[in-house]
Amino acid sequence: MTDECFVIVNLLAGRGRCRRLWPSIERALKRSRIAFRHVFTEAPGAAIEIARRAAKDFSVVVAVGGDGTIHEVATGLMGSSAKLGIIPAGTGNDFVKMLGIPPKDPLRAVEILQEGRTKRVDIGRVGERYFVNGLGVGLDGAVAWRVFRSWRWPMIAPWIYLYAAVYEALCYRSTELEVRAPQWRHSGRLMMVGASNGRYLGGDFRLAPCAEVDDGLFDVYMISDMAPLRRIREIPKVRRGEHITLPEVQIKRADRVEIISESSLLGHLDGEPTEFPAGRIQIELLPKALEVIAGK
Question: In CATH, what is the architecture of 134-287?
Answer without folding.
Answer: Sandwich (2.60)
